[in-house]
Design brief:
Elements lengths: L16 H11 L4 H8 L6 H7 L11 E9 L2 E8 L5 H11 L6 E5 L3 E9 L4 H10 L1 H11 L1 H5 L3 E12 L2 E11 L6 H19 L2 E7 L7 E8 L7 H16 L1 H21 L4 H12 L9 E5 L5 E8 L7 H5 L1 H10 L4 H24 L4 H15 L5 H13 L4 H15 L1
Antiparallel strand pairs: 1-2, 3-8, 4-6, 4-7, 5-6, 8-10, 9-10
The protein binds (R)-mevalonate.
Length: 426
């Protein structure tokens, strides 16, 4: 570390990307190769990146793979997935292939309603305050409509009002929910603006104090649903089906297992959400909160056996994704990803995301109930180890195969084998 090292860099945010990199090279161990690496922002222009977030010095490329074999609502659909995790894309391809004979995946949504919360404290008569707010329904609608006339023009905007008295460690709080149809927008900006506009009026009408005015990521009025039948013969027979059903029941009964089970679903969900420039954290927070809505953290999917003995899966998940605004609009990769899927509305996108989540879960349950995950992982792991040992081209597969035969997947073994291989070649 340089002797000049300090994290206090006045004006860092006003510098250009180039200047920031030069500054970092001065302060840290960043050498010129690393500076050049960061300066290559790939297919996201540095200026665009610089306008997306603060203090930009580069970009982080994540592979995008395309999931094949999907039939969603009768339409052949190709889905780009951005993920750093191996096997995720292949898993969706496999799962989708096995339900094609039964028509693929059917989807639906509950609509595009988002919730914004306004927190009111310091009223000694919370029930009375609640009624006072409810009586202002028309005023609240007018404030919201005025805040976002564009949304209104597109058929969205304020739809409903809910007011709850919440018991907290600080005594009762009065929580107003603005229910807003955000159409093709994820909606955070729209509903936050509305909550901020309505907040002072709620304080005025009730005599209390308003603190938080922010959306809820528990978007339980913006659910996407996916369901599919996997014919028992396609999946390997009744034993495989029963193992998968047992795996689901385990997850549904045990939060320790449900966390991993739902993580697997999010492998697919987040990959599509990221490829389209949407907010992965918002979706993940909403999904996990929804999984705990009964008071116990449970599986987001449900698995059953139909009258013909086939395996039937369903997934219901809050999916607040948008097409207009944010990174989705400005990131060229996100725009291209949407073109691959051929989606024209946020509703369509959310349905594809749910379909991928369901397929991902099918694949995970199947591999877990049969061979286990390590066999597939080890094949890829062996290739990575071979590359780490310096293997190139054909050497990678040759080394990976040999290490698997030996049952020893380690860098030192790979180095030794590489030496032998190259000596043999000379
Ligand atoms: C790994 O990223 C995902 C799985 O652990 C999911 C699961 O256990 O269901 C395979």
């Amino acid at each position: 570390m340089s002797k000049n090292m300090t994290s206090r860099i006045p004006g860092f945010h006003t510098m250009s990307v180039e200047e920031r990199l030069a500054k970092l090279a001065e302060l840290t161990d960043l050498d010129q190769d690393a500076v050049a690496h960061f300066a290559n922002t790939g297919n996201l222009e540095a200026g665009t990146a610089d306008r997306m977030i603060e203090n930009v010095i580069g970009t982080m490329n994540i592979p995008i793979g395309v999931a094949t074999n999907l039939i969603i609502d009768g339409r052949e659909t190709l889905v780009p997935m951005a993920t750093e995790e191996s096997s995720v894309v292949a898993a969706v391809c496999n799962a989708a292939k096995q339900c094609r004979a039964a028509g693929g995946i059917a989807t639906g949504t509950s609509g595009s309603l988002m919730i914004a919360q306004v927190q009111l404290v310091g009223v000694s008569d919370p029930e009375n305050a609640r009624f006072k707010i409810l009586e202002r329904r028309d005023d609240i609608r007018a404030i919201c409509d005025e805040t976002d006339p564009v949304l209104l023009k597109h058929g969205g905007g304020y739809k409903d009002l809910e007011v709850r008295v919440l018991e907290t460690a600080d005594g009762p709080m009065v929580i107003t929910h603005l229910i807003v149809d955000t159409r093709d927008a994820m909606g955070a900006n729209a509903v936050n603006s509305m909550a901020e506009a309505v907040g002072p009026k709620i304080a005025e009408w009730t005599g209390g104090r308003v603190f938080l005015r922010i959306l809820s990521n528990l978007a339980d009025r913006r659910l996407a649903r996916a369901r599919a039948v996997w014919p028992v013969d396609e999946i390997g027979g009744p034993d495989v089906r029963d193992g998968m059903l047992s795996a689901f029941r385990f997850a549904d009964a045990d939060p320790y297992r449900a966390a991993t089970h739902n993580k697997g679903i999010m492998n697919g969900v987040s990959a599509v959400v990221l490829a389209t420039g949407n907010d992965t954290r918002a979706i993940e927070a909403g999904a996990h909160a929804y999984a705990a809505r009964t008071g116990r953290y449970r599986s987001l999917t449900k698995w059953e056996c139909d009258a013909d003995g086939n395996l039937v899966g369903s997934l219901e998940i809050p999916l607040a994704v948008g097409l207009v605004g944010g990174a989705t609009k400005v990131h060229p990769t996100a725009q291209a990803a949407l073109r691959i899927m051929g989606v024209g509305t946020a509703d369509e996108l959310s349905r594809i995301v749910a379909a991928v989540g369901l397929a991902q879960n099918f694949a995970a349950l199947k591999v877990l109930a049969t061979s286990g995950v390590q066999k597939g992982h080890m094949a890829l792991h062996a290739k990575n180890i071979a590359v780490m040992a310096g293997a190139e081209g054909d050497e990678v597969d040759a080394l990976a195969d040999r290490m698997r035969e030996l049952g020893k997947i380690r860098v030192d073994v790979a180095e030794e084998l590489l030496g032998e291989l190259r000596a043999g070649k000379r």
